[in-house]
Amino acid sequence: MMVKKHVVAVLGAVVVVGSAVFASSASSRPTGTAADDPNNASLTYWYWAESDAPGANGWLKKEVAAYEKAHPKVKITIVIQSTDTLTSAFTTAAQTRSGPDIATQWATLPTLTPAWSGASVPISDYVPASETKNWIGTPENLSGGKLWAMPQYLLGIPFVWNKTLFRKAGLDPNKGPKTWTEFLAAAKKLKAAGITPFGMGNKDGYGGAWFFSLIGKQNLNSINELKDAMIGKADFGSAKFSGFYTALADLKKKGYLNSDVASISFEQGFQLFGQKKVGMSWGTDGNVAAWEKQLGAKAMGVGAIPKWGKGKLAASYDTTQSSDAFITKWSKHPRAAAQFLMFLHSPAALKAWYAATGVFPADKRFPASLVTDPIAKKMLALDQSPLSVWPENFVPPQVDQNADLAAGELITSGSGSPADAVKLWRNELSKWKSQHPDEFRNYQKWASGA
Amino acid sequence: MAREVARRRRRRRRALWPYLYALPAVGAMAFAFGFPLVQVVRDSFYAGNFDAPIYVAFDNYKGVINDPQFRESLLNNLKLLLAVPVMLGLGLAIALVLNDRIRGMRKYQAVVFLPYVLPATAIGIAFSFLLQGNGVLNTALRHLHLGALAQDWLGNSHLAIVSVGGLVVWQQLGFCVVVFTAALLALPPETAEAARIDGAGWWALQRRVLVPQIRPIIELLTVIQVITVLSWVFNYVYVLTSGGPGYASSVMELYIWRSFSNGANGTAASVAVMLFGMASVLIGLSLWVRRRAEAT
Predict the structure, then answer these.
(1) Which domain holds residue B17?
(2) pLDDT at A159 > cutoff 90
(3) Which of A169, A279, A311, A422 has fewest C-beta within 10 Å?
């Protein structure tokens, strides 16, 4: 009995002292910043791009070495981020207001939501307009009249087909499918010839998310319609927004996808085309450049994604800056960070980027004359299409993570119907609204053009 | 009278000394455990980010209970509980066989224990390659003309949680074997010898003599493994299936992580409080069982 009393007393004391510590910490706030000398700083850069552009990590390492040589008092530490945790790791850092000086995020919402919550500073406050006017894709990261991030590269998602396997299946190797009907016809012939028609990985949901961005947008007339669906002005359950899940389920049902689509990762899915295991696939410009090295330019065809929908966006291409770099609010050296980011857009750095990755830099100063390879020229032409949109950029990160990714998994695993996928979206949109009232209000404001 | 009062005061002061000595330790514990606990409970009543929290009373709890993804995660934790009798049964069986001092007993013990010392992340990655639709396991089955048994272990929504359970059993089995073996070796040999002299066969000896003697250990290990399955399976799930397909293999820990990484701190905190409550009940049960074990 006595022992029990002591245990209760100690536990009580723990909670009381804990509450006191909590109360004292709640009232404390970080104060003060160190001097911001652009030529004397220690910067941490959370970087991600390798998945989009193989060779990117090596390029950054060399650029950092060159910059540090030119600026001996600047030290830059690169921390490579993984695809799985790119958003979540920064969200966690933003909660604690500590972490990198420069961070990478995917464009638009994943970049703007931290900006809205005060985790980043507008890059346009630190980089002059004479510089930012050369950057391509800046409208993707504009909010409140400010530019919040620096684009590094342009990313298109071309459709690819294996000419050798097309020939084997009795298809014209020089003519890739341009419409959904042609795509299905090609898939049917490939399957009949014992070839897996279309290859992708969706264990982590990114394959399904691409399907949403590449096929799902095609019934929309403008991206504002998707914004309306996010804030409840339109119903995501209508066929206009979610009809693409029926097309995905149809591919699964007909056996046009690789049988292990639900158990291999997105990255593993890319390898299938390079390994000549599938007749058709899609990939980033960087993936295509890598496949070209593996298969040879003559063995593969490159084109735009087949047309499935009837909206104005069916004619659009899908170029985006994909990921971007921004300066965090808690960085003590925003000017140093901005100066380094500008260096990454210097002519030499842009040229080195293209040489290392085969992906086009997001900068008007990049000379197109450097692009000599016929497949690369085709990709550049596609990337410069007059209308380009990547819808995933406009989905709130939480909804993207918990609905967009998961819903595609339901379909490719055969464990859920398009109706189940829609239910997931609706549930997540409703959760987002209640769990992030501030973010929701900011989104509404931004969607209205503010 | 005055002397009596002074003596009482001295006694009271003396009684306070132990608490004073314990104060640094209590302070450290309060910082390490009390502070986060109070903070998490407080956060569970707020929405929004840490900078501008909005008081929502019990809305986070209501939202979680009404969220089908949470219910699916909770259900998956309960499904994983089925792994506990499997690992305990197998562990006990192996320990009983090893207890017969079979040749190479130590080597077998080491082999069985090996998975337990491997990092869960490494195991998860290795198994994710083994269990893919066209992974090592299915390829081997097809080569052995057992293609009918080949399944999409990770991509099938019904099998994904079974695969996770299988992995948990595979890793935890070694721990169960070691604990049971130690318990069996600690038993006085006289009882078993007396039973043998009385004509007890191998099966009767195990069932009627040895197993009943280690019953408190079995009960204790059951509680420990139930706690493990409830609140220590994040690594396996995250690496092996990421909770998918959809939410078919999601568990409460993954739900907490997802909520927190999406900035839904209040939701994450409310589930953490619920999980803490469940684990506390089980820890209480474990203490009770341990006390009983010590008494017998």
Answers:
(1) 2-43
(2) yes
(3) A311
